[in-house]
Every structure is written in C-alpha cells, then in structure tokens.
Specification:
Elements: E1 4-9, H1 13-26, E2 34-36, E3 44-48, H2 52-59, E4 67-71, E5 83-85, H3 90-107, H4 122-125, H5 128-142, H6 172-180, H7 186-200, H8 207-226, H9 230-238, H10 243-270, H11 279-301, H12 310-323, E6 332-333, E7 337-338, H13 342-354, H14 364-372, E8 380-383, H15 386-390, E9 400-403, E10 412-413, H16 419-422, E11 428-431, H17 433-444, H18 452-465, E12 476-477, E13 484-488, H19 490-497, E14 505-512, E15 516-521, E16 533-538, E17 541-552, E18 558-564, E19 569-577, E20 583-588, E21 594-598, E22 607-611, E23 617-628, E24 632-639
Parallel strand pairs: 1-2, 1-3, 3-4, 4-5
Antiparallel strand pairs: 6-7, 8-11, 9-10, 9-11, 12-14, 13-14, 13-16, 14-15, 15-18, 16-17, 17-18, 19-20, 19-22, 20-21, 21-24, 22-23, 23-24
Length: 643
C-alpha cells in the first residue's frame, strides 16, 4: 500500500523532528503509512500560521485540498477553518490522521492519482464544526484507559523502533512464496526468520496487514517445531554442539513473534476494549499465548527450564480471560481462520510440564504434547474449594494441582503446596482425574492399533499426572564429593578411556542413593539428553552411568540424575561374523556380561568376535537388547562353546 504524504509550511527543523517522532509512535495503529515530504503533492497540508512562511503559504493555498490551520493562539478570527492547536501532541496528531484517512478513502473514488493528490474539494466535503466535534471525539477515544472491570494486564510486548533497517516483505502472499523458496538448511533458515521478525519491529505496519503477516510466520514456526523430519534430527545428532545456536535462535523467534501478537493485543487493551467484544483482541491474545506455550515446549525439548516470564504471562492471562468470560471461546477471523481457546492452550502445556519432561527420552516431549491433545477437554480448572484448601491426605489429593497465578512457575501438586498458598483467592486448581481415567483405559484396552511408544509414554507419565510419583530410593545429601570429570557420548567416552584428548565437564555429586546420584554441573554448555551414556572419572576411578533426569537453566547451571551401571568398563573391539569391519565398544563384566556398542551393531542372535586390549578373543552371540538410543546400544550376550 502506498505511503500518504504530509507537507508542512512554517515548521522548523525541531517541529519536523517532533512530528517524525509522533509519526513513529502511531503509524502502526493507522491504516496507511504516513511520511513527511518537503516537495510535491500531499494528502495533508499543515500550516503554522504563527510563522511568516506558514502564513504566506496559507494565503496561497489550494482550497480544494485538505488544509489544516495550526496555531498556538487561543482564539482565531477565522471560524470556518479546519484547525488544531500547536504544539502537536500524540493525541491530536493521531486523531487528525485518522480523520484524514477517512477523507482520503472518499477521495480515492474520484481519481487514479488520489493517493498523491486529493481531488475532492475539501470545502465541499468538510464542515469545520463537524471536524471539531469529530476531533474531540477521537481525542476522547485516544485518551481511553484499560477497562476497569477487568484485571490489570501486563503483556510481554516490545518497543517498536523508529528507525528502519532494511526492507521486509509486507504482502502475505509474497511472504508465503518467499518462505517456500528458503534454504532447507535448518540453521540458516532460523537465522533468516529471526532477522525478518526482528525487522518487523522496526517497521510501522497497519494492524490488519501485520496480523496477516504474523499468521504466515506462525504457521511456518509451528511446522518447524512440531513436524521435525529425519533430516533435522540427523543434523542435530551429527552437529550436536551447533544445536545450541539453533536452540537460542528458535527461542528468540518464538518470543519475538509472541511479542508482536501481544503488541497488537495491547493496543486493544489500552483502548479499554474487552476480548469478549473484539475478536481480533482475543485472537491476538490466544496466538501470543500459544507461542509462549510453544516456547516452553521448545525449552523442554532441550531439557531447559521454561524461559523467564513465560509461565507468569500464561498464569496472568488465565485470570484475565476468566474474568472476561472468554476462556473457552475459540476466536475466528474470516480471513485467518480460528484459534484454539486459551483454556485448551493452557491445559496442554500445563499437563506437559506436570509430566516431568526432564525425565523423558529425546523427542518424547513432542510425542507427549501431541498425545495430550486428546485428553485436555477432561481436565478441569476451578477455584480451590475449601475442602482442598486444608486437606493433607496425599491419596485424596491424587490428580490435584495448584496454579499460583502470581508466580512464574507451572502448576504444582496440591499435596506439596502450603495451605497459605492454597487459600489465596486468585490461585486456581487444575484437576486431572478424568484425564487419568481415559489414559488408564488406553493401557487396559490396548490393541495392535495403539502405538507401543505411546503406551510406554503413558505408563511413564501417569504417576506424575496423578501427583503421586514416589522416588524408588532415598537420596543422601553429600557435603563435598570433590570434583568429578564427566564425559558424555559414546565416541567421547571411548576416546577418554583410550587416553585421547577429549571434551569433559566438571561436576560435583549433590546426593547419592542406592540406584544413582544427582550431579551439579556449574558450566554445562553441551546438550545432554536423557538416556545418554556418561563416564564419571575421579582420580583413578571410572564408572559408567546413564542420564535418567536432566535439567539445564539458561545460565548453564545443570542438574543430572544418574543411574549407575554395574561393572567396570573395559575397552574392546568387536567384529561381526561374517564381516571384516571392526567396531570399538565397552564391555561390562557383570554376572550377565554386556556390551555397549555404537548404534546399528546389535541384531538378535548376531555372532560377534570380541577382542580385548591384550588381543585375546572370544566368540559370542547377542542375546537381549537392554537399552538403545540414537547414539549407542547396550545388550547382553552369551559366549559360544569352544571360545
């Protein structure tokens, strides 16, 4: 859409600068882009009558144009003029432009060149008295405040820059075409998307056009996050360290797009509008909320804590939209389609958080998020009843969770919530009992059509969703365990045991139990996954373990729950029979001997020859696969007779 021009007469450089600042502030709220022009035709002409140059231009004006008489004087001798008071303010300027756009819309019908020059005679279509009344009305609307019958709302918005940095595509159809032609390289694609979204903040685009643009980006990001194909997964495995940049970029993209939606929503909020009455307002709130929930989900994928303020924003919106009676409403815009209700969005990410994503194997959190969509309608959010406010019996509180709406945290088990928090009027209760019943029926009535991975996932998360998960063994806190060198990844561990230089991290044991330990890693800059193989080295002692729980914050302070593997690891080499390829591996000398090999070596009853460091060999046959990841396989074997 073409820009609309303004000509100013009698304005000095300071006046022009002030006008430009005000334009930058309000351009995104108008239907057209306004710019100051010192030459040529314009849509709107401003004359500073207090200045000799402005007064001269006023007397020479074309009366068929939209001319505005500007003065600091309290009274003017000419009553039949369109006039505003100087100095220009954000309020009267916004109202003036809104009026000019209305006049321009009428003028466009009479000339193909009307976007540059108004042909309709201003004196015939404008009444000065009506203009004054309309301007006063617009000023009143512009001075409106947030609705007093709804809670205060602090949205995650971002400031719009007054400077433009590069061009952006503002046509949704062209944007879709451009996205379809972008590189398939995941890292490059993310960098390009981030740069473009950040550029939108530096451009003033009308609300209607901007929401159409944001929808194109929304669908692209959702596809990239929830439809991860084999190419992306393979790239992450082979370039594990580079995924840190991808993770950071994707996190910024999701937040940036959410803020752009919230920027639009905040305009409605500041005007005192209600989401029940304004579909676009509710649509932007729900879209922004969904992107915040996807930002949390993305963090869980990499075993990160939820980014700052994400849960606080969702909890605040829960109360705001509850008060507005639109929690269950699915807003629909004819040109864009519909959006999930806020209640659906909140329940889905809340259940994902409750299920303890830090204990799930890599990529399982996406499967869980998809799986939970089938039960969220059975989850209930209410005020906390008096009985649950004081009840202490853990069994009777099965499936009950507390939402602390003023905290930046996910719902927590009600049984672990102090009574003082439960009785707070704003806090809410999330109840999962009916959802647990449906999930339990899936396990009981499972058929061949049920996905085995889904059933395994349901079994794993049901104790957390019921709020009755119990640790299998108690942990004893240690005062000082000393520094431990931690190596992770099959290839890295092989190199460490061979004495080669390799990457390691320093950690300390926080507490121990019969089954494992909790490690504290103060500077964890690598991506570590649940079920990943790790080697612990302290002085001359080495021990293998697997990660059973992992959480890293955004300052790289990580905690890792370990399951210690029995037996001393020994470097071996394996040769499949028939075949001549040699594979490095680890042998665990336990009551039932086991091998740890790179992914792809194991197959049932496969014959292998194992060579130890001394060159001695034995013939074995693989037996049971104990565990497998994208990095390694751990399996038992039997020694063949005669070896």
């Amino acid at each position: 859409m073409a820009n609309l021009r303004i000509r100013c007469f009698g304005f000095n450089d300071a006046d022009h600068q002030q006008l430009q600042v005000l334009l930058s502030h309000y351009n995104s709220s108008l239907n057209h882009q306004w710019q100051i022009s010192r030459l040529g035709h314009a849509v709107l002409y401003l004359y500073n009558i207090d200045n000799a140059e402005g007064l001269k231009a006023w007397h020479q004006r074309d009366t068929n144009l939209l001319n505005i008489y500007c003065s600091r004087r309290k009274d003017t001798h000419e009553k039949n003029l369109l006039q505003i008071k100087l100095p220009l303010t954000s309020s009267n300027l916004f109202s003036l432009f809104a009026f000019a756009e209305r006049h321009f819309a009428q003028s466009t019908k009479s000339s193909a060149k009307s976007f540059l020059f108004l042909q309709a005679p201003a004196r015939r279509v404008l009444n000065p008295r009506l203009f004054s009344m309309w301007l006063s009305s617009a000023l009143w609307r512009n001075h409106s405040k947030p609705a007093t019958d709804l809670p205060k709302l602090n949205l995650l918005t971002s400031a719009v820059s007054g400077e433009r940095h590069g061009d952006i595509i503002t046509d949704p159809a062209l944007l879709k075409t451009w996205l379809s032609q972008l590189t398939d390289d995941f890292s490059q694609r993310l960098s390009i998307l981030l740069a473009n979204l950040q550029a939108i903040k530096q451009h003033h685009i009308s609300e209607s056009r901007q929401i159409n643009l944001l929808e194109v980006y929304y669908h692209e990001l959702k596809r990239l996050l929830l439809s991860r194909d084999s190419k992306i997964i393979a790239s992450e495995i082979s370039l594990k360290r580079s995924t840190r940049k991808n993770m950071a970029n994707f996190d910024q993209i999701l937040r940036c797009l959410a803020e752009l939606y919230f920027n639009l929503a905040d305009k409605h909020y500041q005007r005192g509008e209600h989401p029940a009455d304004q579909t676009r307002y509710l649509f932007c709130l729900n879209r922004g909320s969904e992107l915040i929930s996807l930002q949390i989900l993305h963090a869980y994928m990499y075993y990160r804590t939820a980014p700052k303020d994400c849960w606080l924003q969702l909890n605040q919106l829960l109360i705001y939209l509850e008060k507005a009676t639109v929690l269950k409403r699915k807003p629909e815009i004819s040109t864009l389609g519909s959006c999930d209700s806020f209640e659906q969005l909140y329940k889905r990410i809340a259940l994902t958080a409750i299920a303890d994503p830090y204990s799930l194997s890599k990529y399982s959190v996406i499967r869980l998020y998809s799986l939970l969509s089938g039960v969220i309608d059975k989850v209930i959010i209410t005020a906390i009843p008096p009985q649950q406010q004081s009840l202490e019996n853990t069994f009777l509180l099965t499936g009950y969770f507390c939402i602390e709406v003023k905290e930046d945290s996910a719902p927590k088990a009600l049984s672990k919530t102090p009574q003082l928090i439960r009785v707070a009027a704003d806090n809410r209760m999330l109840q999962t009992q009916d959802a647990l019943t449906i999930l339990g029926q899936k396990l009981i009535q499972s058929t061949k059509r049920e996905n085995a991975l889904d059933l395994k996932l349901i079994r794993q998360v049901m104790p957390q969703l019921a709020a009755n998960y119990q640790r299998q063994s108690t942990r004893d806190k240690l005062s000082d365990s000393g520094v431990i060198e931690l190596y992770h990844g099959f290839e890295n561990i092989i190199n460490a045991l061979n004495g080669s230089l390799t990457n390691s991290m320093q950690a300390r044991v926080s507490n121990n139990s019969e089954l494992g330990s909790l490690l504290l890693i103060t500077d964890c800059r690598d991506n570590i996954d649940v079920n990943e193989l790790v080697l612990l080295k302290q002085q001359d002692t080495v021990q293998l373990a697997t990660i059973c729980w992992f959480c890293n914050d955004w300052q790289n302070h990580a905690q890792a729950g370990l399951h210690i593997l029995e037996g001393m690891p020994e470097i071996v080499t394996c040769q499949p029979n028939p075949g001549s390829t040699l594979y490095p591996g680890l042998q665990l000398k336990t009551q039932t001997p086991a091998l740890i090999m790179q992914k792809g070596v194991f197959s049932p009853k496969r014959k292998l020859t194992i060579f130890n460091v001394s060159g001695d060999s034995i013939g074995v046959e693989t037996k049971d696969l104990f565990s497998a990841t994208l990095d390694y396989e751990r399996f038992t074997y039997i020694v063949k007779t005669g070896s």
